[in-house]
From TrEMBL:
It comes from Anopheles minimus. This is Dynein heavy chain linker domain-containing protein. GO terms for cellular component: dynein complex. The keyword Coiled coil applies. PANTHER family: DYNEIN HEAVY CHAIN 6, AXONEMAL-LIKE, DYNEIN HEAVY CHAIN 6, AXONEMAL-LIKE-RELATED. It holds the Pfam family DHC_N2. GO terms for biological process: microtubule-based movement. Residues 790-929 form the Dynein heavy chain linker domain. Residues 930-964 form a coiled coil. Keywords: Coiled coil. GO terms for molecular function: dynein intermediate chain binding; dynein light intermediate chain binding.
Amino acid sequence: MPWHTSLPDVEPNTSKELLKQSSNYTPRAPKSEKYQFISNFTLQRVADANELDSILKENEIYYSSFCLPTGAQIDLNSSEHFLPLDMFDDWEYDTFNPEALTIWKNMEALAILPPYTDWHRVLIVNCEAETNYWEVMGKDSSTNYRIPRLHLYFPFEDPYKFADRIVAAVKARETAENAIRFRFLCKHIATDGGFAPGRQLQQSILRRTSVEIYDIFKNLYERYHIALAVGRHLNLDSSAAIKQPSVSCLDSMKTIPSVGHSSGSIELLVDCFRRRTLLCDRNVFHALRFVNQECEMVRRLLLFIVANEKPIPLEEYEKLNLTQTNKMMKYLQNTWIERTTMHLHRLLSRIGDGNFNICVSKWKIYLVMKLKRLIEQILYRMQDALRDLLLDSTATYVNYLVNDCNAILSAGDDYSWDGNLIDSPFEPKRPAVFYLTLEMGQESPYYSTDPDTFPETLPRIMDDILKECHFIHTIEPSLMQHLIFAENLFLSSVGLLDPSIVKRRAALLEYYQKSLFPLRAYAKRYVEYKELFFTNVKEFVEQIKNADKSSSEIKEDIALQIRMRENLEHTVPLCIVIGPYWINVQPLREALIRKRLELTAALLKMLTEKLRIKTADVIGCYNAINERMCEKPVSIEHIYDIRAYMEDVPELVTRLEDRMRSILYEYEILEGFLHNLPDADFEQKWNALAYPRLVLKQMVSVKEFHESEVDRFRKQQFADEAAFTASIEDINAYISRFTTLYDVSKVSEMSVEVRRLWKTLHELIDQGHIMNRRQELFEMAPISLNNLFELRNNFKAYRELWTMAADYLKLEETWIGNPLASVDLEGVRRGLQQTHDSLKDLLPLFRDQPQLLAVLEHFVTVVEAFRPNLDIMELLKCPYLEAIHWGQLAKEIGVKGKLSVDVGFDVFLEHGFRDHLETVRRVVVKAEQLRLQQEERWAEEERIRQIEEDYRRARAERRQKRTDI
């Protein structure tokens, strides 16, 4: 508070002096006096403990200097020491850094050990560099001691510097103990108001200020004068154990009288206080009180979200933080400044002109006013509140996010999750902060939020609010409206490079960077489930079907799927906590379990369909047996075939029953898995089991039906026999009439009718064979077919004559009508010869039938008449005839038109080429000669080209040889 410095009171100065004499402060000698250069750490400065003891005694250092009294509580009125000596040790006397140099390890040194009666030789065991405590072990015993540095002497140290170090610590301890005793004495003196301000001073202060300010002034006034009185008494009585501390302020104020002196001096003191203190008006005090209230409200603000009922995703946490920080920044940048300015304006405007006139318009006056100091005081308070807010908020923010999981900090980039998936070795002491969902990707498992964004986002959230807090305006521009201020006057905030912020940012960043290693390792463990996750159920079932597995193998597959599903239920958790992350594994777990269930259901369905097909096949076999037995017989042969089949039906039924029993075993597999069959499959199964009895019962009915059908077919046989005899008589009469026809112009019609009659004859012969088989089945006499065989033999030559003639005429039409290029001369020659020979072979058969013999000779003559055409056709199909030769032929024979090998032979016959055979032969011979001459010319050109080519090749080889040389 500013009035501490304005009043010539002993308390502030005494507190400063006591602070210098406390354990946190040690009087320091100049660096040059303390510095000790050690060039050789193996040098022995002191021979033994006695020599060191004598050096210390020369500097008035005894064993009692190192020990503290034990037992009863220390009396502050006594001269005994009550503070430990190592509290005042000056570390600047240390000759080396134990963290940098390891020369002290296992070194032999001198130490003073309890009960502090002698120096002993010890071995150094360990060092606590932070506290400067050393662990030593007695050379003659195995007991370890933990002693401060002042109790330990290294052989290479300068013993006199070591003595100076202890002397400095003893003096500092005496100063601190003396100050504590003095303050204790002053505090517990009962004055009964003897050192209080006088009535006139009291009334004057109360008239100008408030009771609160007077109480503060009274307390400071009494403490100051009590200190003066006690100090004066101690200086007069040199036998007192307590000595007055050397406080410059007390020395300077010794001339100020106590309560019994004149009031003028007191008025002078009050006037001095009034001129220097800021609290000379109650409105100033209340203004500072309101400022303090506003600052305390700021200190209690929450800049970050540091509490949640349950973990939330990073995106949601970032949005909530943004909303919170925007709200808080709006309060800090607007509300806080406005409310503070309002309180100051309301209270300071009551004072009016003077040191706190807020309407001052001149800078020179403002700079020397108390108002300037007051605003600076408020500025420092606001900056202190803002700094406390940021430090507390960032500490709370980091403490909330870094939820005390020490195992995270020990994880490295080579960490692998070797344990089970349920128990987490990274369970934090406090609840997890962030919510993640583990999902399965095409390449690898991934989290709903990329873990790499945590180390980027969380420090950025903290840095953003730190940056924004650098733009909170001061109250001067809004309070002092008659003065002009710069626009960039902001409260000093905590910087991004502040050591505490850097440390917290580093801790946050390290924690979340380390947390990525187990997080990725945990997700990597789920790669083994990727194949299952993306398994296509239809393709899986198709693979099983294509493998053509047996039912027992499918049973093993189903059992495997059930075991794997149960394994998933016991090995994959619903959720797991890894450091600051609460990971929801339930969707992935349910998807994997659901996939196992789907695969199990698909296999059960496939097995059900397989059994349905097998059962349907068995039922189909039973139905086929029934249909075969129950066929309506169309003949007696059919009845005997059914009877022969029915003899094997019991054996077939037995085999089908065996098949059904094996299928029932497979149905038991489904029952073992508690799989309910569809109604249709259940009905089909029991129908298959009931079919054997139905089939055997049906056999009895069929046999009874066949007895009646045999009588019916016997009657039908008699009618068929009569009709067959009539058909033979009819065709015999017709053939007899037909063979009297001899018209060669109707060769096509005759060949068609002959073929029809021949077919009819064969059909009657086949029908006769069928009738005879039936006669045998009816146990009746066979029907004679000799007349049919004789009729067929007699009609055969007649059929061959007319069919052969018709076939030849069709061939001749194709030879003449088709283009000459497509006519096969060998085929023509072969067809002519075969037809001619076949017709010649028929001549002896028709010697006794002159009319048919004439017809045969006619067709022989037609065949022989076509033979001369072969020579013309062979010449015209010469491959060497070109357009010029065809033109020459047309010109010499007198054909008006273009001829070629693509023209039909009928064109050449129309133009009488048969009469110009020699002309055609001459043109063909000439074409062949020209072709021979052309080929000889081509051969000569090829020979010359080859010679030239060989010459060029030889010349190139000779050039190559010259180049090589």
